[in-house]
Amino acid sequence: MAKDSMVRKAGKVEKSEKAGKAGGSATTARMSEKAYRKELDRLSVELVKLQEWVVATGAKVCVLLEGRDGAGKDGTIKAIMQRVNSRVFRVVALPAPTEREKSQMFMQRYVPHLPAGGEIILFDRSWYNRAGVERVMGFCTEEQAIQFLRDIPLVEQAIQSSGMILVKYWLEISPEEQTRRLESRIKDARKVWKLSPMDVESYRRWYDYSRARDEMIAATDTEHSPWYVVHADDKKRARLNLISHLLSLIPYEEVKRSEVRLPARRKDKDYVEPEYAYRFVPEAY
Q1: Given this structure, which CATH class describes domain 6-249?
Q2: Which residues are CB-neighbours of 194 under 8 A, at least 6 positions away?
Q3: pTM for this model (two decimals)
């Protein structure tokens, strides 16, 4: 996977004839903002249809977004969330575990965040932290990481047996694109908060993360719970490709809604605007 582009589905590995490196996109030209917005608006309509179907049927959908630092997970989640109901689509991004959580069974802190009926949960990093950052940075032992890789396919099979739809994405970028994005965070005051000491260290350990990724996918890319890899050098295309693919995996249908008409406002001649010194926000623009 480090040299050739791989498309992984249902435990099989296929070489892509169009793409180059693992992080490279099959298309070199960047997508225009106009074309991106037009297509994202179309896909957002479909996400709303999915949302209404999930609520109507009580379906449970869990989506894991994993990938290298700077691969675009946050931007992808924002693209998904821009037009949907945040009470149905919910984002879970857990902080570092507390001392109490460290003493628990590893999956214990994640289970309460799994979706109930009528919910779609987007995990911004997930239990696969154990196979990635925790393993590479030494936050868990090698034995714990290996045990996780051995156990998690069975756990995911149990999750799916409960009727949950589970989808796993890995966003992959090239080393050159990661360099460009992390350097842009250093130079941009709007993004500098995104650059943590962990990001800097992960940049240094590119190949350690590559090995961890390869072992993780080899062990957990199963028939019942495959990994889907997204070329993410072009952020716009990556977001659209992921959303389009997610919609294709879920057998949702459009839920018919009754026509909504606004009623006439009631007239109330007795109402008088109060003479009150409201604290209006200054009109600076």
Answers
A1: alpha beta
A2: 74, 185
A3: 0.87
